[in-house]
């Protein structure tokens, strides 16, 4: 956790469990391994929000870890949570966002930062594939966004949940660009979500 100057919170999460097939590098070492990297990037400058970086267990068994985390949040903690950024299955291609399951403000902020960095970004919905930990937060109306790298091509390659899920499946240049985008995006959210702009008295 990185304390901020207000009581408002931004949650950054990824599941760290995997299925028995393959090494689980794409699903989801790729997301979980960015948690400490983003923590290090964010701690350099002062923040308004408190940032919580969390790894969820048993996503593959039905979002068990994230469901538990959300259920135990108090009303005050829910009210303080301005955003949840979920990272799942990165590095197969350029950065994608699950647009239909993402808060409009959070998605718009991601588009803005991607354009500023000239990093490719598409909104590709993966409703037919399953669910991800961000969905646990919708039940308590916490704004959420899921970042991934699935396309029709990478899905058809049948890498997830198979023996092909290993380091050689990742496109490391794309993975690095996703990290760049996420580092800038998570920092940008501190400025644009939840905290009213200061006003001056005439």
Order of helices and strands: EHHEHHEEHEHEHH
Remind me, CATH topology? Aminopeptidase
* Unreliable segments of 5+ consecutive residues: 197-202
Q: Examine the secondary-structure arrangement and name the CATH architecture.
A: 3-Layer(aba) Sandwich
Which geometry do the CA atoms define? globular
**Could you give the order of strands across the largest sheet?**
2-1-3-6-4-5
Structural class: alpha/beta
Q: Tell me the name of the CATH class.
A: Alpha Beta
What's the overall average pLDDT, rounded? 90
What is the count of structural domains? 1
- Specify the CATH homologous superfamily: Zn peptidases
Kindly estimate the percentage of residues that lie in beta strands according to DSSP.
Answer: 15-25%
Number of strands: 6
User: Could you give the distance between the termini?
Assistant: 38 Å
Mind describing the biggest β-sheet? 6 strands, mixed
Number of helices: 8
User: Which value, in Å, is the CA radius of gyration?
Assistant: 17 Å
Portion of residues in helices? 25-40%
Characterize the structure shown.
This protein has one domain (9-192): Zn peptidases (Aminopeptidase), CATH 3.40.630.10. It contains eight helices and six strands; from the N terminus they run E-H-H-E-H-H-E-E-H-E-H-E-H-H. The chain has helices spanning 25-32, 34-42, 64-71, 75-80, 104-117, 134-138, 152-156, 172-192, and strands at residues 9-15, 50-56, 81-87, 95-97, 121-123, 144-148. Strands 2-1-3-6-4-5 form a six-stranded mixed beta sheet, sandwiched between helices. Helix 2 crosses helix 8 and helix 5 (104-117) crosses helix 8 (172-192). The protein starts with 8 loop residues before the first strand and ends in a 10-residue tail after the last helix. The model is unreliable at 197-202 (pLDDT under 50).
């Amino acid at each position: 956790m990185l304390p901020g100057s207000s009581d408002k919170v931004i949650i950054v999460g990824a599941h760290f469990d995997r299925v028995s097939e393959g090494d689980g590098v794409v699903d989801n070492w790729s997301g979980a391994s960015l948690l400490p990297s983003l923590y290090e990037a964010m701690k350099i400058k002062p923040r308004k929000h408190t940032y919580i970086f969390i790894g969820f267990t048993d996503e593959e068994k039905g979002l068990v870890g994230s469901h538990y985390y959300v259920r135990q949040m108090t009303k005050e903690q829910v009210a303080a949570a301005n955003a949840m950024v979920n990272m799942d299955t990165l590095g197969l291609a350029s950065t994608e966002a699950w647009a239909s399951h993402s808060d409009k403000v959070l998605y718009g902020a991601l588009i803005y930062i991607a354009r500023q960095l000239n990093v490719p970004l598409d909104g590709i919905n993966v409703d037919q594939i399953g669910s991800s930990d961000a969905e646990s937060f919708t039940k308590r109306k916490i704004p959420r966004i899921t970042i991934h790298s699935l396309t029709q091509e990478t899905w058809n390659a049948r890498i997830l949940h198979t023996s092909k899920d290993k380091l050689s499946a990742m496109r490391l240049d794309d993975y690095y660009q996703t990290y760049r985008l996420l580092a800038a995006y998570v920092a940008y959210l501190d400025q644009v979500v939840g905290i009213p702009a200061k006003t001056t008295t005439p």
